[in-house]
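task queued by scheduler; priority normal; single chain, no ligands, no partner chains; default sampling; output format set to C-alpha coordinates
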Amino acid sequence: MPPEITLRINRPCTPEEAADVFRRSGIRRPYHDLERIQRMLDHADELITAYDGNRLIGLLRAITDYAYCCYISDIAVDLQYQGLGIGKSLLNALRDKLGETEIQYVLTSAPKATGFYEKTGFERAKNAYVIKRKIN
Protein backbone atom coordinates (compact mmCIF):
# COMPACT_ATOMS: atom_id res chain seq x y z
CA MET A 1 0.00 0.00 0.00
CA PRO A 2 1.41 3.44 -0.87
CA PRO A 3 2.65 5.37 2.18
CA GLU A 4 0.39 8.36 1.52
CA ILE A 5 -2.71 6.16 2.03
CA THR A 6 -4.01 6.13 5.61
CA LEU A 7 -6.45 3.69 7.18
CA ARG A 8 -9.01 4.78 9.73
CA ILE A 9 -10.82 2.30 11.95
CA ASN A 10 -14.40 3.08 12.99
CA ARG A 11 -14.17 6.76 12.15
CA PRO A 12 -17.32 7.87 10.36
CA CYS A 13 -17.45 8.93 6.76
CA THR A 14 -20.33 10.70 5.08
CA PRO A 15 -22.88 8.87 2.95
CA GLU A 16 -21.76 11.07 0.06
CA GLU A 17 -18.16 9.85 0.46
CA ALA A 18 -19.25 6.21 0.71
CA ALA A 19 -21.58 6.52 -2.29
CA ASP A 20 -18.81 8.11 -4.31
CA VAL A 21 -16.29 5.36 -3.52
CA PHE A 22 -18.93 2.71 -4.30
CA ARG A 23 -19.52 4.39 -7.68
CA ARG A 24 -15.80 4.79 -8.42
CA SER A 25 -15.04 1.20 -7.41
CA GLY A 26 -17.52 -0.42 -9.75
CA ILE A 27 -19.23 -2.32 -6.91
CA ARG A 28 -22.99 -2.62 -7.27
CA ARG A 29 -24.46 -0.64 -4.40
CA PRO A 30 -27.35 1.87 -4.21
CA TYR A 31 -25.03 4.87 -4.42
CA HIS A 32 -27.88 7.06 -5.64
CA ASP A 33 -29.81 6.49 -2.36
CA LEU A 34 -27.93 8.47 0.30
CA GLU A 35 -30.46 7.70 3.04
CA ARG A 36 -29.92 3.98 2.51
CA ILE A 37 -26.14 4.43 2.39
CA GLN A 38 -26.36 6.26 5.73
CA ARG A 39 -28.28 3.32 7.25
CA MET A 40 -25.64 0.94 5.86
CA LEU A 41 -22.91 2.96 7.58
CA ASP A 42 -24.85 3.43 10.82
CA HIS A 43 -25.50 -0.26 11.31
CA ALA A 44 -22.08 -1.63 10.43
CA ASP A 45 -20.24 -2.99 13.46
CA GLU A 46 -16.87 -2.28 11.85
CA LEU A 47 -16.01 0.39 9.29
CA ILE A 48 -12.47 0.61 7.99
CA THR A 49 -11.70 3.35 5.50
CA ALA A 50 -8.72 4.24 3.32
CA TYR A 51 -7.93 7.84 2.48
CA ASP A 52 -5.54 9.49 0.06
CA GLY A 53 -5.22 12.82 1.81
CA ASN A 54 -8.82 13.86 2.48
CA ARG A 55 -10.31 11.73 -0.31
CA LEU A 56 -11.99 8.45 0.59
CA ILE A 57 -10.64 5.82 -1.81
CA GLY A 58 -11.67 2.58 -0.10
CA LEU A 59 -13.89 1.14 2.58
CA LEU A 60 -14.76 -2.10 4.30
CA ARG A 61 -18.02 -2.61 6.20
CA ALA A 62 -18.60 -5.63 8.44
CA ILE A 63 -21.27 -7.05 10.72
CA THR A 64 -19.99 -9.20 13.59
CA ASP A 65 -20.85 -10.73 16.95
CA TYR A 66 -17.16 -10.37 17.99
CA ALA A 67 -17.15 -13.97 19.19
CA TYR A 68 -17.75 -16.39 16.33
CA CYS A 69 -18.57 -14.84 12.96
CA CYS A 70 -17.88 -11.71 10.97
CA TYR A 71 -19.74 -11.02 7.73
CA ILE A 72 -17.92 -8.62 5.44
CA SER A 73 -20.63 -6.62 3.69
CA ASP A 74 -18.47 -4.44 1.46
CA ILE A 75 -14.93 -4.05 0.31
CA ALA A 76 -14.77 -1.24 -2.23
CA VAL A 77 -11.66 0.42 -3.62
CA ASP A 78 -11.64 3.19 -6.23
CA LEU A 79 -10.70 1.66 -9.61
CA GLN A 80 -7.77 4.09 -9.92
CA TYR A 81 -6.29 2.64 -6.70
CA GLN A 82 -6.97 -1.05 -7.26
CA GLY A 83 -3.92 -3.29 -7.44
CA LEU A 84 -1.97 -1.28 -4.84
CA GLY A 85 -2.77 -3.51 -1.86
CA ILE A 86 -5.46 -1.27 -0.37
CA GLY A 87 -8.19 -3.93 -0.31
CA LYS A 88 -5.79 -6.37 1.32
CA SER A 89 -4.81 -3.72 3.87
CA LEU A 90 -8.48 -3.09 4.72
CA LEU A 91 -8.96 -6.84 5.28
CA ASN A 92 -5.78 -7.15 7.32
CA ALA A 93 -6.83 -4.24 9.55
CA LEU A 94 -10.12 -6.00 10.28
CA ARG A 95 -8.41 -9.32 10.95
CA ASP A 96 -5.82 -7.64 13.18
CA LYS A 97 -8.59 -6.03 15.21
CA LEU A 98 -10.88 -9.07 15.56
CA GLY A 99 -8.28 -11.82 15.58
CA GLU A 100 -7.78 -15.13 13.83
CA THR A 101 -8.61 -17.78 16.42
CA GLU A 102 -12.26 -17.23 17.36
CA ILE A 103 -13.72 -15.38 14.39
CA GLN A 104 -14.68 -16.89 11.04
CA TYR A 105 -14.83 -14.36 8.19
CA VAL A 106 -17.62 -14.74 5.62
CA LEU A 107 -18.55 -12.81 2.50
CA THR A 108 -20.24 -13.11 -0.85
CA SER A 109 -18.23 -12.15 -3.89
CA ALA A 110 -18.95 -10.65 -7.26
CA PRO A 111 -17.60 -12.95 -10.00
CA LYS A 112 -14.84 -10.46 -10.91
CA ALA A 113 -13.53 -10.38 -7.32
CA THR A 114 -13.13 -14.12 -6.63
CA GLY A 115 -9.43 -14.11 -7.52
CA PHE A 116 -8.78 -11.27 -5.07
CA TYR A 117 -10.44 -13.15 -2.22
CA GLU A 118 -8.63 -16.39 -2.97
CA LYS A 119 -5.29 -14.51 -2.95
CA THR A 120 -6.11 -13.02 0.48
CA GLY A 121 -6.76 -16.39 2.14
CA PHE A 122 -10.48 -16.97 1.65
CA GLU A 123 -11.64 -20.45 0.69
CA ARG A 124 -14.55 -20.92 -1.68
CA ALA A 125 -17.61 -22.31 0.14
CA LYS A 126 -20.11 -24.60 -1.54
CA ASN A 127 -22.84 -24.25 1.06
CA ALA A 128 -23.87 -20.59 0.95
CA TYR A 129 -27.50 -19.62 0.46
CA VAL A 130 -29.09 -16.28 -0.36
CA ILE A 131 -32.59 -14.82 -0.35
CA LYS A 132 -32.18 -12.01 -2.84
CA ARG A 133 -33.70 -8.56 -2.42
CA LYS A 134 -36.98 -7.92 -4.15
CA ILE A 135 -36.52 -5.20 -6.72
CA ASN A 136 -39.38 -2.73 -7.07
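post-processing summary
- DSSP finds four helices and five strands in the chain.
- The first strand starts at residue 5 and ends at 9.
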